């Protein structure tokens, strides 16, 4: 497929950027504000699907590691499939059939899980497009499943009342398959250069042809699918991408303005200027409340973003803790699921997200539409700030609490999400005791979310104590809601007429 002349497509991009309201400079782009729908949504589903689910070995980095001598993936590939020259990564594509793929059933599952937005991978580092593309023959609509799997899911997502998004991991393709250039493999075959290439060295900056193609592939996705979430993986922070990122952001925001929709562009590290998009932290956490809304993207599995038989799955309790911790600090959680090559999910994943959905059905009022309180956390177990901090399970106690807040026409509500149910049957919230000084207002009412019985509670100098019943004792933790008493405005004293 000849896409060597991109002049017309680039002229189209330039025209949209010139039209405004956003210009391709950081001063203009930092006028962006994350939409209210996203600030309220809090929870979305991420999907890593692709050719790498056919070998289902190691992780989604199988295509890179299988061409790197000395890795378990390389040895597995040779032992299982033979020499790379005879059977390479491209030869897995016919087996990505997704014959049991049901986008309506997927959307129903995500809705049941409590997701408000869905972000499938459009293209991963391997260079295979899970959407219909006019810029490559290596697309799911033409080979493998031979259907526009991303487009079908976007339609089903919107029909189910959720927001449809996409992710792009294309940037890393510059170097991703370069291991195959160091020995006799099909990466060196000119017939497959348009799939495996460029396969350049990691130390080199991408050239103009690659950067233009990256831009135009992303523009194609924007125009064809109109995603309201556009998520980028790492490596776009490489300096060569900087002018293209400004152009892309202006294009995306201008298109959104033209279509009358509010969109979210997400990035890692320092790829975008602060305030011009939403910062995302991979498998990450914050220690403090952030001024701007942010996102933690994490996987349901601790050891992979794509499905393989040896998944180390997180528990529902662990996911509740991650979600509550994000929300308490003005963040959102994007939770990845791992579809198989046949278009189904591992039953263990389905059960975990359904349990999470049951939790949100009972306690979701403490999550959706909330904002941070004065302090985000109470208790001995604190998150470690940064990326890749979820490699090991964390044991939370009944003293570990995350706080959120809501102000509406009914008044001011505070929520305490207790991450482990107390064996004593009594929740103790020290931050809401009278002596600590964090909550100076009187408490009008106290409720245990999801429990129809009136709450039995007492406020002491040391804590607010709430007795629990057996309601929803099968779910992790519990959430408490308090309604604060209305504040009385002091009467004005008129010194003039004394």
The geometry reads as: globular
Low-confidence stretches: none
Strand content is 15-25%
**Given the helix and strand composition, which structural class is it?**
alpha/beta
| Strand and helix order | HHHEHHHEHEHHEHEEEHEHEEEEEEEE
Question: What do these coordinates show?
Answer:
The chain has about 500 residues and is of the alpha/beta class. α11 links the parallel β7 (about 295-300) and β8. The protein is globular and about 85 Å long. It contains twelve helices and 16 strands. The chain has helices at about 5-20, 25-30, 35-40, 60-65, 70-80, 105-115, 150-160, 195, 210-225, 240-260, 315-330, 345-365; strands at about 45, 115-125, 165-170, 230, 265, 280, 295-300, 330-335, 370-380, 400-410, 410-420, 425-430, 445-450, 455-460, 465, 480-485. The mean pLDDT is about 95.
Please write out the topology.
Layout lengths: L6 H13 L6 H4 L6 H6 L1 E5 L14 H4 L6 H10 L21 H11 L3 E7 L25 H11 L3 E6 L24 H4 L11 H18 L3 E4 L9 H18 L4 E4 L10 E5 L11 E6 L16 H13 L2 E7 L9 H17 L7 E8 L22 E8 L2 E8 L7 E4 L13 E6 L7 E4 L4 E4 L10 E7 L14
Parallel strand pairs: 1-2, 1-8, 2-3, 3-4, 4-5, 5-6, 6-7, 7-8
Antiparallel strand pairs: 9-10, 10-11, 11-16, 12-15, 13-16, 14-15
Helix pairs in contact: 1-10, 6-7, 6-12, 9-10, 11-12
């Amino acid at each position: 497929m000849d896409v060597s002349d991109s002049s017309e497509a680039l002229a189209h991009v330039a025209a949209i950027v010139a039209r405004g309201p956003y210009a391709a400079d950081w001063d203009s782009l930092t006028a962006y504000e994350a939409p209210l729908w996203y600030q309220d949504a809090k929870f979305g589903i991420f999907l890593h699907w692709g050719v790498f689910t056919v070998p289902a070995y190691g992780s989604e980095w199988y295509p890179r590691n299988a061409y790197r001598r000395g890795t378990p993936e390389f040895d597995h590939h040779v032992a299982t499939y033979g020499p790379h020259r005879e059977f390479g990564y491209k030869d897995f594509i016919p087996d990505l059939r997704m014959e049991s793929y049901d986008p309506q059933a997927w959307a129903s599952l995500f809705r049941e899980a409590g997701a408000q937005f869905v972000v499938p991978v459009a293209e991963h580092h391997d260079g295979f497009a899970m959407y219909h593309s006019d810029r490559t023959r290596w697309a799911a609509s033409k080979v493998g499943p031979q259907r526009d799997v991303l487009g079908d899911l976007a339609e089903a997502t919107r029909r189910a009342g959720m927001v449809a998004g996409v992710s792009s991991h294309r940037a890393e393709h510059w170097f991703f398959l370069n291991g195959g250039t160091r020995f006799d493999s099909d990466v060196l075959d000119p017939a497959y250069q348009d799939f495996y290439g460029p396969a350049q060295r990691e130390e080199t900056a991408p050239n103009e042809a690659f950067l233009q193609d990256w831009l135009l592939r992303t523009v194609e996705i924007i125009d064809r699918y109109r995603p309201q979430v556009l998520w980028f993986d790492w490596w776009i922070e490489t300096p060569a991408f900087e002018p293209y990122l400004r152009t892309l952001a202006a294009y995306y925001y201008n298109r959104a303005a033209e279509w009358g929709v509010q969109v979210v562009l997400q990035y890692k590290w320092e790829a975008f200027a602060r305030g011009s998009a939403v910062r995302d932290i991979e498998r990450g956490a914050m220690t403090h409340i952030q001024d701007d809304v942010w996102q933690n993207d994490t996987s349901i599995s601790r050891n992979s973003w794509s499905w393989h038989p040896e998944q180390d799955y997180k528990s529902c309790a662990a996911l509740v803790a991650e979600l509550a911790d994000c929300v308490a600090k003005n963040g959102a959680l994007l939770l990845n699921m791992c579809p198989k090559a046949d278009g189904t999910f591992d039953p263990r994943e389905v059960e975990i997200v359904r349990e999470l959905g049951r939790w949100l059905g009972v306690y979701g009022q403490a999550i959706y539409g909330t904002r941070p309180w004065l302090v985000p956390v109470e208790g001995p177990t604190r998150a470690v700030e940064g990326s890749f901090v979820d490699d090991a399970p964390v044991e939370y106690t009944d003293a570990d609490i995350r706080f959120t807040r809501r102000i509406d026409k009914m008044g001011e509500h505070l929520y305490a999400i207790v991450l482990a149910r107390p064996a004593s049957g009594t929740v103790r919230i020290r931050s809401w005791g009278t002596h600590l000084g964090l909550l100076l207002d009187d408490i009008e009412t106290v409720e245990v979310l999801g429990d129809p019985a009136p709450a039995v509670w007492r406020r002491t100098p040391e804590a607010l104590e709430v007795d629990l019943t057996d309601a929803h004792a099968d779910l992790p933790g519990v959430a408490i809601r308090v309604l604060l008493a209305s504040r009385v405005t002091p009467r004005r004293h008129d010194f003039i007429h004394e």
